[in-house]
Amino acid sequence: RGDIQVSLRVLFLFSLPGITLRKMSIAPSSSVDLSYRTAASSWNKLFDRYYRKVELYSMRWGAIDLGKMIVSAAQFAGPIAVLRDDKKMSLVTAGSLRPALNIYGCSGILLASVPWKSGRLIEMGWSDDETLICVLDDGTVQIYSVQGRLLQTFSMGPEFREERVLHCCIWGGGVVCLSRGFCLAYVDNLEEPTVRKMPKLTDLPSNPTSMAIIEPQFTQSKALEVLIAVDKTILLVDMTSVQDQKLTAGPLRKMSVCPNGKMLACFTHDGFVWVITTDFSKNLSEFPTKSLVPPHQMVWCGTDSVVLYWDQLVLMVGPYGDWVKYPYDEPVFLAPEADAVRIYSTSSAELLCRVSDAAVDVLKVGSCTAGALLLDARELLDQGDVKADETLRSIRDSLPEAVAACTEAATHEIDPAAQ
Q1: Backbone angles phi, psi at 303, to 5 degrees
Q2: Angle subtended at Cα 149 by Cα 147 and Cα 155, rounded to the nearest 5 degrees
Q3: What is the spatial distance between Cα 258 and Cα 289, in angstroms, rounded to a whole number?
Q4: Complete DSSP assignment for 61-111
């Protein structure tokens, strides 16, 4: 910003060799904004990393009860699809007897509304090109545009029409379904869908309790791998085999794969968040939540922490068992991003993310790095304090590094004033 550049030039003139500063009078700026300093005091430290939760904007979708809805949000602040969940009781008014599939922008502005005339929805999610994938309980897959136009319909096969869908996972490039008869099939090309059958699961002691996938770009074979929690163990299924991992921590109520495909978070039957590597060679951490009730959602916040949501509570579990909780008085929905989690509620959209190392170096309370001292000098100049020159002199030899550090920290800030 122009005013920052002018301030730096003025300070640098007073710091030239051979110039002795006898007396200086600086008029204080009328636009000093130190809100980014107070924001740093609200960071939460989990082990050696800092996290913050910031409000992005107010939602404009009205009095919507997310607790009674099936919700799916596209990545990178994309559109949000909402449909009434017919498995949950909700107040139905005269004008809302027929449910509608509503598609909103990321701030809650309605983009499209489509009367829902199809069957029971099992799962919905967004593809990489922001088309909405809806999987029905009879194996029918419907694909909608952001404007609510039905683009394509196909079936996962006759087994799903007869046996119905038990579990389903959607990723950016396709969809995989498990039938109640334990048939497994997937589609990995949504433009020209071809259903591919995986090995059928046989001799299972009980129904699978959860399912997750490792996307093809993260596997050694570059093919889809499906993780199915059965009884106390996990089955790893690919196109050629079903491998029992011989675990004993189950039953596992929920599973979530890390965005880089290297770690798996599991919620066990006795209330532990258990994190292991996806090759099942290392047990990374176990955290007791003291809740036998599984969370509504469990997602990753980047690659460092796991976020869980129960009614009125969001819990973030970091490395080595550190944790922080955020209470809510309204239902929320967690939308995982590659490096953060968006938290949508009736009233607001928030971003829960790790604070960048550059921002920690510059903004952390008590930091003495060159970037932090340069920011201190700017603030002193804005306040009309002659100590600004003294502070700048102390980092004169590392001024380029200080400017680079502040610039890097600014790229991670959302608020223009903080930038």
Answers
A1: -120, 15
A2: 135
A3: 20
A4: S-S--GGGEEEEE-TTT--EEEEE-TTS-----GGGSS-EEEEE-TTS-EE
Q: What is the pLDDT of residue 19?
A: 40
Quote the CA–CA distance of 163 and 139 in Å, as a whole number: 9
Taking the C-alpha atoms of residue 334 and residue 71, their distance in angstroms, rounded to an integer, is 9
- Of the two residues 368 and 281, the one the predictor is more confident about is 281
Q: What is the pLDDT of residues 40-80, one digit of tens each?
A: 778 898 888 899 999 998 999 998 999 999 999 999 999 99
In the sheet where 100-104 sits, what is the strand order?
Answer: 69-73, 80-84, 100-104, 110-115
Helix axes 2-14, 370-382, angle to 10 degrees: 100
Beta strands at 313-317 and 323-327: parallel, antiparallel or unpaired = antiparallel
**Which residue is associated with the tokens 């107040």?**
91
Two structure tokens written together for 241: 């085999």
The CA distance from 373 to 367, in Å, is 8
Q: 132-140 — which CB contacts under 8 Å span 24+ positions?
A: 132/72, 132/79, 132/81, 132/103, 133/170, 133/175, 133/190, 134/101, 135/165, 135/168, 135/170, 135/175, 135/177, 136/165, 137/164, 137/165, 138/164, 138/165, 139/164, 139/165, 139/177, 139/179
Supply the DSSP string of 339-390, one letter for each residue: SEEEEEESSEEEEEEEPPHHHHHHHSTT--SHHHHHHHHHHHHHTT-THHHH
Which residue in 146, 82, 78 sits closest to 111, CA to CA? 146
Asked if 256 and 265 count as a contact pair (C-beta separation under 8 A), the reply is yes
Query: Mean pLDDT over all residues of the chain?
Result: 88
- Best CA proximity match to 146, nearest among 166, 167, 157, 130: 130
Could you tell me the two tokens for 151? Answer: 């683009």
- Helix, strand, coil percent values for the chain (each to nearest 5): 20, 40, 45
CA–CA distance, 348 with 328 (Å, rounded to integer): 11
At 89 the pLDDT is: 62
Q: What angle do CA 372, 378, 381 make, to 5 degrees?
A: 140
Report which of 320, 263, 323, 319 is spatially closest to residue 291, judged by C-alpha positions: 323
Q: How far, in Å, are 101, 108, 330 from residue 112 at the CA level?
A: 8, 11, 25
Cα(336)–Cα(289) distance, integer angstroms: 21
